[in-house]
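ok so I'm stuck.
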Amino acid sequence: MNYPKYHIGPMSKNVVDAILEYTEETGNVIGIIPSRRQIEHSGGYVNNWTTKTFYAYINRRLPITRDHSGPSQGINKDDGYASLQHDCKYFNMIHIDPWIQYPEYADGLKWTIDMINFCYKQNQKLEYEIGTEESIRKFEAFELDRLMINLRAKLPVHIFNRIKCLVVQSGTSLKGNTNTGKYSKDRLKDMIEVAGIWNLYSKEHNGDYISTSLIKEKFDLGLDAINIAPEFGQIETKTYLDKIKQNSELFGILYKICYISNKWKKWVDKDFDPIQQKEELINICGHYILSDSDFLLKVKSKFTNIDLEIKNNIKIKLQELHG
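replied:
not stuck anymore, here's the structure
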């Protein structure tokens, strides 16, 4: 598998199309990292793609990694195995992440081992990403090293060697449209060192809403890759907002669609006022409703060629990252 520096969440069909076009135009390969809520074997909020139809659409043009596979990472509480059964057929790499439901180390280790063994039986060519982001379960560098030691002891060597990527942490965390984490350069360096000891590709999650200079600093420290997702969805949302801010009727329609989706609730704190902070609510969860029939009929249909404008705005951000 080709290991790109940037891995982007497929927040919408426009995001996926912009990445495909940008890659073809520039030669800069970008990884795609669908979560279970975005694209699942039973469907998802992104273009109503299933795992199978999304794979067919990408058609091997880009590497795709399942982001956050595992128990209760989808819409409903589950053990994650039905999802994995399909993922093993279509993905290049699977992020094994039981930690949201099993944060205790021993439990998370057991589930990591069991899920890797399950996947290997389905597809011996799969590669694996292990660990998780800080907002799910905080790890220290010594724990990541311990995790690798335990996995080496518990997995057959030929399966252990399919682990290629380690999720490292440096304090990043998302809330609304903000990166609320407290960045620690020393912590990142320690974790990158662990990845290096095990000859693994180091990847940080939640690279949204931070400066390109900070991302460059992380790469200069030895970070191999970074995930970015909601920020690209917000680019599309803002394109719509810029057009309808002065149209109170359309703004109200968009707000209502976003509000009743309830998708914003995950990203706000208890002091958030959805009535007084309407524009912020739209910015937070606009990308969740881009395939909604009401949105398509009542909002998107009002703007000719808006997809082209959205894709161009996304490409500007991609070029900024690679600049």
